Amino acid sequence: MNKRNISISLIIIAILASIFLGFDTVIVFIQAIGLILFFLGTPFFLTFKNILYLSSVYHKKSTSHAITDFWTIFLGSLFSYLLLDISFHVTNSTWSEVVYNSERHQILWSGSFPSIFLLTIFVFGGYFLLNYASFQSFPPLVTVLAISSLYLGIVFCLTWMIQLAILAQENDAIYLFLYLFPINLILIFIRSILYTVIQWPDYCAERPFSRKIPQSWVKFLNSAPSLPLLALLFTLPLLGFIIMITILLGQEPDSLIKAWTETSDWTLSQRIAPPNAYYDEHYLCTVGASGHRKIVKPIRMGVRHGRRVVVNRQLCIANAFEQILEERLPKIHLAIRCLYDRYGYPLSRHIKKAWQADIIYVLMKPLEFLFLAVIYLHDSKPENRIALQYISKPPFTP
């Protein structure tokens, strides 16, 4: 079947689908397929391009190399962030903070961010020097240090992959997508090093070393393998220089190590985090209690379905009101509960962020005042009923 017949077949299928399913449904379906192909296909396409460029490193660099590198770094960072946030629920909470439900603590300790940021500057500074500046125009030691910085970048990427390896225990193959970004960075760094090594003998021929240097040394320095070996020797001194700067910035000498170890939930973690608290994602008031502390004002931990949950006053009032409603008007309570389960659940199940929970908490305030008025009109000791909510396993789920 030629291309023309394929095109005609696709057009006929699209027309028939529009007739039977509706035009809007077809458009939504096409958009969904496009997004899936973009998010799944782009990482593999960029990986293929970087492998191709690495295999053809002896050829002259072109503009396409720079374009591919840019999209690899930009989209790789974006996709990794979205995947960690949406699929694995990674938060910015330190190991000592309580997270909720299936959330995870941060991968890198935030206390070491200045050190990580400085290391990143050195790594990508070396990358830009080797790729977008003529290394023939600056001293040889600068070229050596630029390659040393890329060595540090490769070590960082490998450590990142080790840190994420614990996700393999969940038998969820989607975590493999998180490896594509560091693998592509390693490919880019290796390509940059190899290109510089290949050009090194020509550079030495144009700028010969001093005659005072023994000929055996000159022969070694003019050879291509000398450059990566010298860079390897200078890697530790460069790392020591970076650590000295971080100490001047107020960081501890081992901050780059603590970046990995002062965490929980990950392969290199050395800390044990407090157990996750739980809130029922089916109900608006319970979701609202998971907002920012200054806004939702949690008062204590409670017990619900055998799990520890965060409890604030709004949640206790809503639960107490439903308790009264079920005692006095069971049929009305059942109707309201069915209605709420039908329409409230689709909304509350999508609330995953603290700021979203804050909005729910504020929107529920008028109902909270109404519930509180009913409780005060019904009970002689209303605060006792409110205080007893979630003390033990409750039979109600507001």
TrEMBL record:
InterPro entries in UniProt: DUF6688_C, DUF6688_N
Keyword Cell inner membrane: no
Pfam families reported in the protein's UniProt record: DUF6688 (PF20394), DUF6688_C (PF23543)
Domain DUF6688: 35-276, 280-391
Claim: Ubl conjugation is one of the keywords in the record: no
Annotated keywords: Membrane, Transmembrane, Transmembrane helix
Transmembrane annotation, as ranges: 6-23, 28-46, 66-86, 107-129, 141-162, 174-198, 227-249
Domain of life: Bacteria
Protein's recorded name: Uncharacterized protein
Lineage: Bacteria, Bacillati, Bacillota, Bacilli, Lactobacillales
